[in-house]
């Protein structure tokens, strides 16, 4: 064997040895390391394919589809509902304990309470405008004298105001005396009736009959006592028939008027009594009675004017005085929840009932009046139930994404396929309305710029953007930096606010 052959043989031997060593080392390591932890690790098998029950549009959760695709209602893909998802049914929602803690979720109890209790408001004393007398000239004449009176004076009933010279009355009185002298009874009666028709008082006619002399100077007096509110007569002036000479306001009774919050005005009734405490008479309780509830509420303050009447013995009560009014309301039982626990979309009101730790379900409720920070519930909830009082908007968004329906809402069956979608029309309850919270950054009569929270249904993060107003009246009573809860929907190419209300920070 020559040198070249030996070299080739040696190379082949080395290669074979290398292969043997390369195979033997792993085998040795596998044999010697079989007891190590690494050797006990098993490779997980490929995940089993999840079963899809149906597809749905989060904004129209009542409508189900048997194939994927785009929603016929919103420009977004349909979402699958898997069989292995949360065990909750179509009306329940489960939230992890970590999520509950992160959201700072608070709950409140539905309480059985009473509404219509005492209403305490501030009132102002006013003159009784139903107790007013107007003094007028009954015929044309001249002012001969004006007694020492001025606007603001308090006078008694029958107090003289002015002496008037009345030429027409003088002529009529002379005619009456001439007819009477003739002794014709029917003519005398007719002449006397003419004096009455000219506005001559019975007392003056009797005086003319008694004296047999005409009396052309007539003293005008006040028909009642009270405050001289206006005095229009002056010495030397000429007056015409029906001209006003003075206005006198009676003081036997006074009004006290208060602005009652609209939410507390419902139980009040005319004739109801109230207690009044005036600052001018500390420790003294006066009685008043509601005589009128004005039919128009103030749009800016959302209050109703209530007018009460009080006796004024000794004329102690002065117009302009102020005091506290305690109105006795008729108490009625009612279910009460915090106002913030109810989500109002403009079409319905929702509350989320607590079923257990981290478990909730939406309930459609019928709401009534708002009393302070409490809301009257007329239906949908029962006393003792726990409802979500914070972060319910985020829970509501999650419920919409999962297709959770309010209790009592009927779920539709899967729609028949048509290009991957059901062909049935959207249900009447389906809308593209969204309810979120925000802070007003800028405002105009037609548009609001709001820094709002995230809108998961639209895949929007928290941001600041402008919204058109469906009506300029929606901006009434709002201000910059105010926290609000608003409902908006897509109309055309933009988003329009359809409802908005103030919320507590």
Automatic annotation (TrEMBL):
<dbReference type="Pfam" id="PF25967">
    <property type="entry name" value="RND-MFP_C"/>
</dbReference>
<feature type="domain" description="CusB-like barrel-sandwich hybrid">
    <location>
        <begin position="132"/>
        <end position="249"/>
    </location>
</feature>
<dbReference type="GO" id="GO:0046914">
    <property type="term" value="F:transition metal ion binding"/>
</dbReference>
<keyword id="KW-0813">Transport</keyword>
<feature type="domain" description="CusB-like three alpha-helical bundle">
    <location>
        <begin position="168"/>
        <end position="214"/>
    </location>
</feature>
<dbReference type="InterPro" id="IPR006143">
    <property type="entry name" value="RND_pump_MFP"/>
</dbReference>
<dbReference type="InterPro" id="IPR021647">
    <property type="entry name" value="CusF_Ec"/>
</dbReference>
<dbReference type="GO" id="GO:0016020">
    <property type="term" value="C:membrane"/>
</dbReference>
<dbReference type="GO" id="GO:0015679">
    <property type="term" value="P:plasma membrane copper ion transport"/>
</dbReference>
<dbReference type="InterPro" id="IPR058790">
    <property type="entry name" value="BSH_CusB"/>
</dbReference>
<feature type="domain" description="Heavy metal binding">
    <location>
        <begin position="54"/>
        <end position="81"/>
    </location>
</feature>
<dbReference type="GO" id="GO:0022857">
    <property type="term" value="F:transmembrane transporter activity"/>
</dbReference>
<dbReference type="InterPro" id="IPR042230">
    <property type="entry name" value="CusF_sf"/>
</dbReference>
<dbReference type="InterPro" id="IPR045800">
    <property type="entry name" value="HMBD"/>
</dbReference>
<dbReference type="Pfam" id="PF25869">
    <property type="entry name" value="3HB_CusB"/>
</dbReference>
<dbReference type="GO" id="GO:0030288">
    <property type="term" value="C:outer membrane-bounded periplasmic space"/>
</dbReference>
<feature type="domain" description="Multidrug resistance protein MdtA-like C-terminal permuted SH3">
    <location>
        <begin position="334"/>
        <end position="390"/>
    </location>
</feature>
<dbReference type="Pfam" id="PF25919">
    <property type="entry name" value="BSH_CusB"/>
</dbReference>
<dbReference type="InterPro" id="IPR051909">
    <property type="entry name" value="MFP_Cation_Efflux"/>
</dbReference>
<protein>
    <submittedName>
        <fullName>Cation efflux system protein CusB</fullName>
    </submittedName>
</protein>
<dbReference type="InterPro" id="IPR058627">
    <property type="entry name" value="MdtA-like_C"/>
</dbReference>
<feature type="domain" description="CusB-like beta-barrel">
    <location>
        <begin position="253"/>
        <end position="330"/>
    </location>
</feature>
<comment type="similarity">
    <text>Belongs to the membrane fusion protein (MFP) (TC 8.A.1) family.</text>
</comment>
<dbReference type="InterPro" id="IPR058791">
    <property type="entry name" value="3HB_CusB"/>
</dbReference>
<dbReference type="InterPro" id="IPR058792">
    <property type="entry name" value="Beta-barrel_RND_2"/>
</dbReference>
<dbReference type="Pfam" id="PF11604">
    <property type="entry name" value="CusF_Ec"/>
</dbReference>
<dbReference type="GO" id="GO:0060003">
    <property type="term" value="P:copper ion export"/>
</dbReference>
<dbReference type="Pfam" id="PF19335">
    <property type="entry name" value="HMBD"/>
</dbReference>
<dbReference type="Pfam" id="PF25954">
    <property type="entry name" value="Beta-barrel_RND_2"/>
</dbReference>
């Amino acid at each position: 064997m020559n040198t070249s052959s030996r070299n080739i043989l040696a190379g082949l031997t080395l290669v074979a040895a290398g292969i043997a060593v390369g195979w033997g080392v792993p085998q040795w390591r596998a044999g010697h390391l079989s007891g190590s932890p690494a050797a006990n690790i098993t490779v997980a098998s490929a995940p089993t394919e999840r079963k899809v029950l149906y597809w749905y549009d989060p904004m129209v959760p009542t409508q189900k589809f048997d194939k994927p695709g785009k929603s016929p209602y919103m420009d977004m893909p349909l979402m699958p509902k898997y069989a292995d998802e949360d065990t909750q049914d179509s009306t329940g929602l489960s939230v992890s304990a970590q999520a509950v803690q992160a959201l700072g979720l608070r709950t409140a109890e539905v309480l059985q309470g009473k509404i219509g209790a005492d209403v305490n408001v501030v009132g102002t004393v006013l003159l009784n405008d139903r107790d007013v007398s107007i003094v007028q000239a009954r015929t044309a004449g001249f002012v001969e004298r004006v007694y020492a009176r001025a606007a603001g004076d308090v006078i008694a009933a029958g107090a003289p105001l002015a002496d008037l010279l009345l030429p027409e009355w003088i002529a009529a009185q002379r005619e009456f005396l001439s007819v009477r002298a003739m002794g014709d009874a029917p003519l005398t009666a007719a002449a006397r009736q003419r004096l009455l028709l000219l506005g001559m008082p019975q007392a003056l006619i009797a005086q003319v009959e008694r004296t047999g002399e005409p009396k052309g100077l007539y003293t005008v007096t006040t028909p009642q006592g009270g405050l001289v509110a206006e005095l229009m007569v002056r010495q030397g002036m000429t007056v015409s028939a029906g001209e006003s000479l003075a206005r006198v306001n009676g003081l036997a009774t006074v009004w006290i008027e208060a602005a009652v919050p609209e939410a507390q005005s419902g139980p009040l009734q005319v004739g109801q009594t109230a207690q009044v405490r005036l600052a001018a008479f500390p420790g003294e309780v006066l009685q008043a009675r509601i005589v009128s509830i004005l039919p128009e509420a103030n749009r800016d303050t959302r209050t109703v004017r209530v007018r009460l009447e009080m006796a004024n013995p000794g004329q102690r009560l002065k117009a302009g005085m102020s005091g506290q009014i305690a109105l006795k309301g008729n108490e009625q039982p009612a279910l009460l929840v915090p106002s913030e626990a109810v989500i109002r979309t403009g079409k319905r009101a929702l509350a989320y009932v607590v079923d257990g730790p981290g478990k909730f379900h939406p309930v459609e409720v019928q709401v009534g009046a708002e009393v302070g920070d409490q809301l009257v519930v007329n239906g949908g909830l029962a006393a003792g139930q726990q409802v979500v009082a914070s972060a319910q908007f985020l829970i509501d968004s999650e419920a919409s994404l999962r297709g959770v329906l309010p209790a009592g809402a009927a779920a539709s069956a899967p729609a028949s396929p048509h290009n991957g979608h059901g062909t049935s029309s959207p249900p009447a309850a389906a809308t593209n309305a969204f309810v979120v919270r925000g802070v007003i950054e800028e405002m105009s009569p037609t548009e609001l710029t709001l820094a709002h929270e995230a809108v998961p249904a639209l895949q929007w993060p928290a941001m600041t953007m402008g919204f058109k107003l469906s009506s300029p009246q929606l901006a009434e009573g709002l201000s910059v930096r105010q926290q609000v809860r608003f409902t908006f929907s897509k109309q055309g190419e933009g988003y329009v606010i359809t409802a908005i209300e103030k919320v507590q920070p």
